[in-house]
Design a protein that fits this description.
Low-confidence stretches: none
Order of helices and strands: HHHHHHHHHHHHHHHHHHHHHH
Helix content: over 70%
Radius of gyration: 23 Å
Strand content: under 5%
Number of strands: 0
Oligomer: single chain
Largest sheet: none
């Protein structure tokens, strides 16, 4: 059965990823590639993207490292706070950009205009990626207790035990978290586009600018190829990081529970201050104006497109995610394929489709394929560990009793996998609902979604369009958060 699932996945990837990337490779390796490498401006965009990725990773790890050790203690609300830390990761980039503008923009609540500064971009990267780093570091930090206690029994001081035993065991997790943050920040699009101004445009923003304003496909392909090579190197480093088996963590320390609850709650309240500012700054009448807008895409049309495209794309991403998880469980080599779509930026996907399928430009099939490609790995990465943890004896017993492989999966395995499937579905649905980069490249006016409707209003000066954009961002934040809560509640447990 795994062979058929693997074939289904490879067939989709050949159409939706490998062939479009091959066309980028062909065009990017032409004369445009060497011209781009010799252009000081493009090199400046590349080096800034590297700088932004590295600084974002260092800043995120600097906060995630001590927080991970605080989460080792048992205190009221610990699981809820860890689950809450993941919420920004599923928020659409226009929502996050508008939230930071509402707090720290030229019309912001604090009156401190940081628009177009590196500091604002780094704060947004921290907002986005802190929860991702905690998800990697906290389970490892929890299991260090046994190794540290063993070192203490052998006579090591707490300081020496941590630096000689604990830190070496934690370094691979720190490397994994740092590389993941670097990959997401280096290829960031929506936040730098909306908050960085012309000075702090990443390579991804430059690719979009070349496509949208100059139709310079060769130069865009060359820059995309340079970006893909960098991301591939980072992914290779990520895959080659060692993993060390850790002993059970033992009883969790209690510490000062209510002090930890109050302190960490205050920290996350400060971290989420931009979201609070977004809702405080919304004009109640702006939503009504957006509903019946004559100058922009009306809210009912944008909301209907978002919901329709999300459901259609998820109906494709769900079987792809299950097929990938089922095939990768038995064939370790296929596990690497699941990382490929996560390495490729949405703008690169859109560019690849324009080059590979010119006769299908303006086709809804390409848009839905892009959504499914970017969403199914999120679902599969949540499902795969649960699938691998199932005892093979369960499936073998069902087969002995006469069940076909498909029936055994439906009646025996699927009920046990539902929590992981729901959690992965929450991530996939939120990713589709808030997708921005590929939507912008493949956009048609009648396909305007909520994210594009926000961008549409931000492109027009004046208080009225800005307030409508804030109202749409608040609505999209509520939809994404509610969707994630309904599907993932109770599953963000530590360890």
């Amino acid at each position: 059965m795994s062979g058929h699932l693997g074939a289904l996945l490879l067939l989709f990837l050949a159409f939706a990823l490998f062939y479009p990337l091959f066309r980028i490779l062909l065009l990017g390796l032409g004369t445009g590639f060497w011209e781009a490498l010799g252009n000081p401006y493009y090199l400046g965009r590349y080096f800034f993207s590297l700088q932004y990725g590295l600084l974002s990773a260092l800043l995120t790890l600097a906060l995630a490292f001590p927080l991970a050790f605080l989460f080792r203690f048992r205190f009221p609300g610990r699981e809820a706070l860890l689950a809450l830390s993941t919420l920004p990761f599923v928020l659409p980039t226009p929502v996050v950009a508008l939230a930071f503008m509402a707090l720290l923009g030229p019309r912001g609540l604090l009156g401190a205009d940081l628009y177009g500064t590196l500091a604002l971009l780094l704060l947004a990267a921290l907002f986005y990626n802190l929860g991702l780093a905690l998800r990697v570091l906290v389970p490892v930090a929890l299991r260090l207790r046994g190794a540290l206690e063993a070192a203490r029994v052998l006579g090591a001081t707490p300081y020496r035990a941590f630096f000689r035993v604990g830190l070496p065991l934690l370094l691979p997790a720190l490397g994994s978290a740092g590389l993941l943050v670097f990959i997401y920040a280096f290829s960031a699009f929506g936040v730098p586009l909306l908050l960085g101004g012309g000075r702090y445009a990443t390579l991804e923003v430059e690719v979009y600018t070349l496509l949208a304003h100059r139709l310079a496909f060769a130069e865009a392909a060359a820059l995309t190829l340079l970006q893909l090579c960098t991301l591939a190197l980072a992914a290779l480093l990520y895959l080659r990081l060692p993993t060390y088996p850790l002993p059970p963590g033992g009883p969790e320390p209690v510490g000062r529970p209510w002090a930890l609850t109050l302190g960490l709650s205050s920290f996350f309240l400060l971290l989420y201050a931009p979201l609070l500012a977004l809702f405080l700054e919304v004009d109640p009448g702006a939503l009504a104006r957006a509903w019946a807008s004559e100058d922009f895409t009306p809210l009912p049309v944008a909301l209907g497109n978002s919901l329709r495209f999300t459901l259609l794309a998820f109906s494709l991403a769900l079987p792809l995610g299950v097929a990938y998880a089922g095939a990768a469980r038995e064939r370790g080599g296929l596990d690497l394929l699941g990382l490929f779509p996560l390495m490729v930026s949405p703008v690169a996907v859109g560019l690849g489709y324009l080059l590979a399928y010119p006769s299908l430009r303006g086709s809804l099939a390409l848009l839905l394929a892009a959504y499914a490609l970017l969403a199914y790995p999120l679902l599969a990465r949540a499902l795969l560990p649960a699938l691998r943890s199932l005892p093979k004896s369960l499936l073998e017993a069902a087969r002995v009793l006469g069940a076909t492989p498909f029936r055994a999966f439906l009646r025996v395995e699927l009920p046990l996998l539902l929590p992981a499937l729901a959690s992965g579905s929450a991530l996939a649905l939120a990713a589709i609902l808030g997708e921005f980069g590929a939507s912008l490249v493949l956009w048609r006016p009648e396909w305007t979604t909520l994210t594009l409707a926000i961008y549409e209003r931000l492109g027009r000066p004046g208080e009225g369009p800005y307030q409508e954009a804030l109202a749409l961002a608040a609505l999209l934040a509520l939809l994404s958060g509610l969707l994630f809560y309904l599907l993932d509640r109770g599953r963000g447990r530590i360890g």
